[in-house]
Design brief:
alpha+beta; Arc Repressor Mutant, subunit A; two-stranded antiparallel sheet; elongated; disordered N terminus
Length: 131
């Protein structure tokens, strides 16, 4: 028996794709809107890890990120490319001797996107605790 999610305007939307247990939860008002406004690009676990790591480091190499996030070359490449295409991170490739090196840094738009994301998460936490 699935419940509808209550929107701020009093209307209802179906809890599409949720299991019965999850659909039993009701999210109301601003908390629902804030959750819906989350930056889906950053919200993915690996991409959040990348931008978070770069937020506290001026730059990180591909290998440093891979070790830090405990992931594979392919997984890191795919997620870093999505962030780069969005303009959230910048990638610099060069050779050190004969060895190719890749360095990443967080861009100004990437930092702003991360700040907005963190503000949204804080608003969800606050609304949930108040509710």
């Amino acid at each position: 028996m699935a419940r509808a999610l209550k929107h701020e305007d009093g209307g209802a939307g179906h809890a599409g794709g949720l299991g019965d247990e999850e659909a039993e939860m009701t999210v109301a008002g601003p908390a629902l809107q804030t959750a819906l406004d989350l930056d889906r690009l950053i919200h993915e676990r690996m991409r959040l890890g990348i931008v978070s790591a770069l937020a506290v480091n001026d730059q990180l190499s591909f290998n440093d990120l891979k070790k830090l996030l405990k992931t594979t070359d392919g997984n890191l490449s795919v997620h870093a490319r999505k962030l780069e295409e969005a303009g959230y991170i910048a990638c610099e490739k060069y050779f050190e001797g004969r060895m190719p090196k890749t360095e990443y840094r967080l861009t100004r738009p990437g930092r702003r996107a991360l700040e907005r994301y963190l503000d949204h998460m804080e608003a969800i936490i606050h609304a949930t605790r108040e509710g």
